């Protein structure tokens, strides 16, 4: 499923400016004459666009990014099209089912082909469309098009596969149910719409999801209606020859038969009055408020939709006066963001706010509506509008740094009317909007009758939550700044080139492992103060306002031994951007109000983000903490709550002075940075203290003996599982590439290539996914590829079982994973699996460094580990490997004698009893399963975890990271 926030939405609509263009085959019926007459085109690169005789529309764009190709297949069907009672969620369900394959290319066959070809494929579903995306080397384009065409024409699955996948979808629904924002969205849609299909989310209503296993016949009908060429577009972007590519498409897709079904959705009746609903969420810290207004339908040639997007960005983004007032100055809210999904029909435009105190909910609600009143009564300044348009333009250019990102942007607009010129139409409507248009359109849409408000908290109701009133808004001001000189003593990785995008990475070899005793979290606060706090000359709001028209980025990432400050800007704006961010980094303002705000956010992130709403990441972080007791890695990167509460601004200043030194700094630069600016950058960084420690000294991991389990009890509808043990092999070791290959075979992250995934999720439908790691991989539930700059001197082997439906299932899945790990250690990999995994990783590795900033980050990591450039390093290592090498590495690195398990469960007592009594954990299925699988189940359901009672601990979530 996909969620688009406003900044990404608008940026995607405008940023094809320097990367794309308009030109088609003159013989094509889809001529671009009208578009060519347009004076203002952001989509201007040559492309080939054609509608085949069967109604399939094909867009081919040739780019200069070598070797890689991105194929995106948007299907114009989403949850909007689910208008039969009791049949919601099927657009999303078929996103899953399409991966089952066809008779010619069943899942096992095409997955093996894709793995060997290094194909990275996935899909997502939205309100109005479903998109399938594949990224791979150009050599495999013909075969990928053949396989995908066969799947779309001849999808085949068994009733058992259908029913099993329905269980997986139910598990995904339960997983998503832990998110407050998803609960808010589900509640506001159900309340705001009386008849329209936008009443339900992309996942559908839960009762319909539960009933899916019995809807096999309807599933066939749904597929036959919507998976037809007139509903489908093919977007192919990359190192391709357009005419030859079009010929491939004609060959494989041209004989697909057109359908005759037309999806008709009745419009929603006009809302007559403001609505309000309160949702109770047991155990939720703080309170959430959502204020939503009905917006415009999709009309790229008119001004309404574009004006509403501009209003959201001007008045409700983190650059707005309202954000400054509520989050930064008064600190009534810890989070505020807007979300405006692009919808074919009139949808909702949302402003989310999280507050800590119930008494502040009405104040914050009134401030939001006061701001909408302000939009209706004032004319926005031309300077603000010009700055916003500049931001949109450069945000687009900054974001499109790979064939995949270009293709993804095109796919997100092709589904509306299946015309690539949609982007130009939308941009023209943005460009032509005036302050008067904004005021006029605000008065049409932001009225009481269009509003629906939702509150969410652990309370039964919100006291004194009366009807909104309109008030006046406030504004902020801008100041300029200076910089100073000196002489450099730090490492520099200079990869400057001709790219118009400039990426800079200030990587310090320090981090959370350097937090002093009693001050766990000071590194995290320091990192945030330097990117989300003001400088000595400018407030944080001033800096944000200065960065805004430049579309400049500056952010931080913290790990145990690395603190990375990264930024991106277009070369046109480099000097102005550098003046702003260098002042933050080298001349911090150390304002008490910034410190209090950021400390509050950090504490709230641990309490509400990690401990309350993110069971999966919580389990992984608890595992690290348990394995590294008494070690520099023991504490969570963001710190301990009790320590954070006591940390002072003076502690942060002391950490900055002692740890952010030239000796620890490793500077990375890429893109067309002007020589004069580069010289100034070097000079300025030389003002940092010299220091003498190059990097932190990290002890070996504590010795783990026997089997241990930590059960974290909390309000949870599913059970999250992580287990693992320390390993000595890190990226600089000779056996690392072999071990990296093993973990890919056993559990490639978010990939159906994973052996564990195939056994636990695919064959048994137990959960959402099952993966293994040999390097720290945070935020795994949000991304498919790891971040750079998480280098560590000590790592663990870890297995992550994405939430199970119950303690019984969690017990079985853990046993299954241990059973398969034992088998892997005993039998090793087969020659076929070894060759396939090596082929996959050899082809897949370049995708980890597909963008410029990733290339820079990985290059800096290679400096940390003292290895060659990453792709070259792993490919050379793979070329030398034999199956005997890999199986030796398995036996030398993997074991099951010493393991720590972590379970996040709603019933810790029950989980503990199951573990200690070795209680049988049988599985029941809703469809027939092969006898061989059932026989294996019999072994697994009693497979011993061998946990002595003294090694099993149940702890309340409240005590974690305290």
Automatic annotation (TrEMBL):
Protein name per UniProt: Insulinase family protein
Signal peptide feature range: 1-21
Family per similarity comment: Belongs to the peptidase M16 family.
Domain of life: Bacteria
Species assigned in the record: Colwellia hornerae
Cited Gene3D superfamilies: Metalloenzyme, LuxS/M16 peptidase-like (3.30.830.10)
Domain Peptidase M16 N-terminal, chain residue ranges per copy: 58-203, 504-634
Domain Peptidase M16 C-terminal: 221-392, 647-840
SUPFAM superfamilies, per database record: LuxS/MPP-like metallohydrolase
Keywords, in A-Z order: Signal
GO function term, MF aspect, one: metal ion binding
Pfam families according to UniProt: Peptidase_M16 (PF00675), Peptidase_M16_C (PF05193)
